[in-house]
Amino acid sequence: MTAALIDGNALSKQLRSEVAQRAAALKSRGLTPGLAVVLVGDNPASQVYVRNKVKACEDSGLHSVLEKYDASMSEADLLARVDALNNDPAIHGILVQLPLPAHIDAQKVIEAISPLKDVDGFHIASAGALMTGMPGFWPCTPYGCMKMLESIGYELKGKHAVVIGRSNIVGKPMALMLLQKDATVTICHSRTADLKAQTLQADVIVAAVGRRNVLTADMVKPGAVVLDVGMNRNDEGKLCGDVDFDGVREVAGHITPVPGGVGPMTITMLLVNTLEAAERAALGA
Ligand code: GUN
User: Fold this and answer.
1) Checking CA distances to 191, which of 18, 70, 177, 273 falls within 20 to 30 Å?
2) pLDDT of residue 284
3) What b/e readout covers 56-88, taking b as 16+ CB neighbours within 10 angstroms?
4) Is residue 186 part of a domain?
5) pLDDT, tens digit (0-9, with 9 covering 90-100), for 149-208
6) Both 102 and 147 in a single domain?
7) Alpha carbons 157 and 126: distance in angstroms, whole number
């Protein structure tokens, strides 16, 4: 059996057009959703990411501001900028691009962002809201994965999901989202004794490690759904995920490609969160 592809570009297109419609509705009431993207330093990958985020906003009719600062910016000056954006009524979402230069405490900066504008979902208040099932912003990458499962009508109740990776940005929130939908969830990581024994039990596998070929065909139960969060380069310099795509697609029921899978969904969910922040602001929430 060859797995069906879950196309992140097609799903993104659909979700972004819904964002554009909702943004237009808000605009007609005099409120344009606004995202501030803050970049400190000249990390080349970060420059590409922030450009893509700003362009995606423009394409969906959201207002966006890109603030670029020199790598020598002090932590105090950055905190002052975040404070100003917290108090700016034209800005509904604030994203401080990571990584930050080493002299800046990234966690301190994240905690300075108002949870009402934390569209990355990285604030402790956002993490706590996710953990307790309260309203709040969900981190964009795992949120995008949930939308991909929803797009194929996948019922998680009673299924076994294995998340490979335990980062605060993907692995841990992913596990909580799957749990909220009544899956039985196992989190695996670099110290897991027998990864294959775990993944072979899984109906859903999310690979979020940042290393090629973490998941190979012999580790996958026939028909399983495989979501690949990885973004790596192979020996030829081509973009690839954490999953051995060619092998696993012959065993899995559904699989996300890299590129064109989870990647575009991350920015899409940033747009969704920003729109949501603006809609809540419009309600005076
Ligand atoms: N750096 C890489 N990915 C991200 C992201 O999703 N948000 C932020 N703020 N920084 C990042």
Assistant:
1) 177
2) 81
3) bbeebbbbbbebeeeeebebeebbebbeebeee
4) yes
5) 999 999 999 999 999 999 999 999 999 999 999 999 999 999 999 999 999 999 999 999
6) no
7) 24
At residue 285, the pLDDT reads 57
Among the listed residues 19, 3, 9, 106, the one whose alpha carbon sits nearest the alpha carbon of residue 57: 19
Catalytic residue among 120, 228, 242, 244: 120
Q: Which atom of ligand 1 is nearest to the CA of 120?
A: 7
pTM: 0.97
Q: Which amino acid is at 92?
A: H
218 noted as active-site residue: no
Give the domain range for residue 245: 140-263
pLDDT at 164: 98
Residues 200 and 144 in one domain: yes
Of 97, 118, 159, 172, catalytic? 97
Q: How many A from CA of 117 to the centre of ligand 1? A: 15
Among protein residues, the one with the nearest Cα to ligand 1's atom 1 is: 98
One domain, residues 101 and 144 = no
CA dist 121 and 31 (Å) reads 23
In the structure encoding, which two tokens stand for residue 66, read together? 């890109």
Q: Give me the chain's average pLDDT, please.
A: 97
Query: Nearest C-alpha to atom 2 of ligand 1 is from which residue?
Result: 98
Question: Which amino acids bring their CB within 6 angstroms of ligand 1?
Answer: 49, 95-98, 120, 140
Q: Do 156 and 259 share a domain, yes or no?
A: yes
Determine whether 120 is an active site residue.
yes
Identify whether residues 150 and 96 lie together within a single domain: no
CA of 266 to the centre of ligand 1 (A): 9
Q: 30-75: per-residue pLDDT in tens?
A: 999 999 999 999 999 999 999 999 999 999 999 999 999 999 999 9
Query: What pLDDT band is residue 1 in, cutting at 50, 70 and 90?
Result: confident
